[in-house]
Amino acid sequence: MRLTDIALLNLRRRKAKAAFLLTGLLIGVTTVVALLSITEAMSRNVNDKLERYGANILVLPKSETLSLTYGGISLGGVSFDMKELKEEDLAKIRTIENSANIAALGPTVLGVAELSGQKVLTAGVDFSVSHVLKPWWKLVGDIPAGAGVVAGSEAARVFFLIPGETVKIAGKDLKVTGVLEPTGSQDDQLLFTDLKTAQEIFGKKGTVSLVEVAALCKDCPVSDMVNQIGRIIPDANVMAIQSVVKSRLETIEHLRRFSYGISAVVLFVGGLMVLVTMMGSVRERTAEIGVFRAIGFRKSHVMRIIFTESAIVSLLAGILGYPAGLAVTAVALPFFAPGEGAGVALDPVLALFAVSISLLLGLVASIYPAVAATRMDPNEALRAL
């Protein structure tokens, strides 16, 4: 009879202990798989939501002057006599090494227009990418198809602008096609028109005041992209919106550390359970082990029997634990990560990890019981019969 057959017969004879051991390991593996799957799904959910913050890299012309605004309050001295970026530089940004991570480029022309005897900051933008760069915009009316104006909520209030009205800016009649709902940002104070119209109005043909880049996605190397853009446009000041990037990274890191910590505790408890169960099994089989040694079984044979029993149960727990963990994730995920971007996904790496860690845990926890079994004196074991 082979050692594997002996191990299988032992498991069949002690079904209750085998079932207890399998259940304990199964709960441990299921918990670990569920924690890691939920963390990964929450990370995807966080990434999806953070991507909706819009642009996270700003490309500005270099300037020798400092801004005199704080918290949206201007202290005077702010002017728009800074250098402009060349519109042709936009094509260079598309050639950087990590260009595949660029979701959208938003060239913007800024200028001061006069309307109804008052000055108003006007921005020429590419409306076709506004849904990516400014996803928080909610518009009453429509985005202009050509030359037209979208008014910020405060600008619309001050100038009594409503959709359908025509305004004259720099001698050019422009139709107000939409009004932004309050955003709580500087956008509320601005008038927006399309890029070409703004370049004509302010005489900035072929130049832009700044470029917004949306590149926040999973594993985006934002800092590397900032350096790459800075190298190809040396006259530009390229900066990442650090608060968004750091918030994203820290949130994901906290989630991962939490799941790793809980998983380590669960695996440790599972290992202790295997140790205690296998030690109890060895003590119950003192006489049996004595017979094995008396008929010529070596210490290595006894150890292989113990390890084979543990490996069979651990392997089964790992195989069953992965789908069980995904099922728990599917049930729990709506409570932790509601919304788009979160979902249960099959992960072959996690499946392999679940089986491997279960097998490794079972074998490591069985070392001491196996060694204890080999140290039994055959004569004393036989006297127990």
Tell me what the structure shows.
This protein has 385 residues and is an alpha+beta fold. It is built from 13 helices and 14 strands. The protein has helices at residues 3-13, 15-51, 89-93, 130-133, 153-159, 195-202, 222-232, 242-284, 286-294, 299-336, 348-365, 367-374, 378-383, and strands spanning 57-61, 69-70, 73-74, 85-86, 104-115, 118-125, 139-141, 149-151, 166-169, 172-180, 191-194, 207-208, 210-214, 236-240. The strands form three sheets. Strands 1, 5, 6, 7, 8, 9, 10, 11, 13 and 14 form a ten-stranded mixed beta sheet that branches. The chain has a two-stranded antiparallel sheet with strand order 2-3. Strands 4-12 form a two-stranded antiparallel ribbon. Strand 5 and strand 6 (118-125) form a beta hairpin. Helix 2 (15-51) runs antiparallel to helix 11, helix 10 packs across helix 11 and helix 10 (299-336) packs antiparallel against helix 12 (367-374). It is rod-shaped. It starts with a helix and ends with a helix. Residues 75-80 have low confidence and may be disordered.
